[in-house]
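[job 0412] stage=complex_fold ligand=heme C status=START
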Amino acid sequence: MNTTRIVLVGTLILLGGERGLGKERHLEQVRTLLVVREARCTSCHESQSSEELNAYGRRLANRPAGMSWAERILQMEQSDSRLDGGEEKPEEQANRPSTPDSDVDGDGVANWVEILAHTSPANKKDTPEAALAARITAAVSCRMCHTATHQLGVGQEANPHNELGALLAKTVEKKSSNRPKDADAIRQQAEAVPILRRLALTKVKRPPKSAASYWHRIRLYRSTTDSGDAPTREAVQKFKKETARRKREGRSSPTTGFEHPAHPEDGFLRDGKGLD
Ligand code: HEC
Ligand code: HEC
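[job 0412] stage=complex_fold status=DONE, emitting structure tokens
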């Protein structure tokens, strides 16, 4: 093997590795959007009318200045108590909170699960019912788009798509004037479209014979593909009514949401525009 080939093979392996890593952010970004959609002022503040932050809100606020809100919320769930995941300085070690950032109140339930279940991520005594927590963690997982992950093999073979994953893997902007013809080129173009944007583009698509769209199934913490785990018609109606009400009340409603001039939806969260 000559040097050029060695370098080429090395580069391909590196690129492959990075692509695999990047893909794991698909789930993290969807999860962050769900947190923002389901958060109440009191998920992060001491009370509805108070600007004072609770312990979870304080840790969000303490993340490095200049980091987007999207990235802050995403990173909370993957980090230990170090603020930026880097080397800890001795004074940081001394100030390190006793619980990891991913479970601020130390009740054994991750912050994001608590926010989705409408319990407080900052109050140890307030925890979701086990069945609901289990449903949330089962639905909001790689299984949303893959039938399995980390199997033997590489790429697709190791992480086969389910119907939603397959749909997203070929979803490109509708008005794309240079929409390619062959499947490989479409997949490549799709990969460059942010995952939340692709979910927004396909939000009314539904699995065969299902009354609920893939997106509604995700929002109601159901399997995207298992027909035995479909949401009821009533649950979908209730969800639609609730989101219509929130839209009507908009920013004038202080009771729900993250949307507030003090913390605009920024970064990759903007790609989720249009996703209830
Ligand atoms: C996901 C967590 C989260 C949610 C949900 C949230 N906030 Fe905040 N909020 C924060 C953080 C963190 C800060 C601190 C901002 C900073 O440090 O710049 C903040 C700051 C604020 C401020 C500015 C306070 C100041 O000192 O300037 C106001 C006002 C506010 N939030 C109101 C609300 C309202 C009203 C809601 C509900 C509609 C809400 N927030 C929901 C996390 C949240
Ligand atoms: C919202 C849907 C979605 C979720 C959730 C998701 N993926 Fe994927 N994944 C995709 C799509 C679509 C692709 C194909 C590449 C692309 O179009 O971005 C992909 C590709 C991959 C690949 C690369 C395979 C290849 O062809 O190179 C890996 C590895 C992967 N996903 C692992 C995971 C793991 C592990 C999780 C859970 C942590 C996960 N994915 C969660 C949609 C998703």
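The radius of gyration is 20 Å.
[job 0412] exit 0
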